[in-house]
Specification:
There is one protein chain. The chain is mostly beta strands. A five-stranded mixed barrel has the order 1-2-3-5-4. The longest helix has 8 residues. Strand 1 and strand 2 form a beta hairpin.
Length: 98
């Protein structure tokens, strides 16, 4: 099955790109997604952050990596996302502080 066929089967699911904050849990990563928008009243650019818990079956993502996650059915109390791919690996030796 190709990726395009897989996407059409699954329908229109939300995707986000963010940075891995933690991978200390088994098969779970914490991803911080950044959203920038103009404030409706003051017109100043505001940066908003949100944390998502995502399922990482092979434990391939490490802290500091940029990853793409996709919305899925509830997998646990907090997990509603799954890892699609690691977009960019972290090259720094020090882990990201969260």
């Amino acid at each position: 099955m190709t990726e395009n066929a897989n996407l059409t089967e699954r329908g229109n699911r939300k995707e986000r790109v963010g940075e891995v904050l933690s991978s200390k849990m088994t098969k779970t990563i914490v991803v911080q997604v950044q959203r920038r928008f103009a404030h409706p009243e003051f017109k100043k650019v505001v940066t908003q952050y949100k944390k998502f818990y995502a399922h990482d079956e092979k434990s391939e993502a490490k802290p500091g990596d940029r990853v793409r996650i996709e919305e899925t059915r509830p997998l646990s109390k907090l997990k509603r996302w799954r890892l699609v791919q690691v977009v960019e690996r972290n090259t720094d030796a020090a882990p990201v502080a969260g």
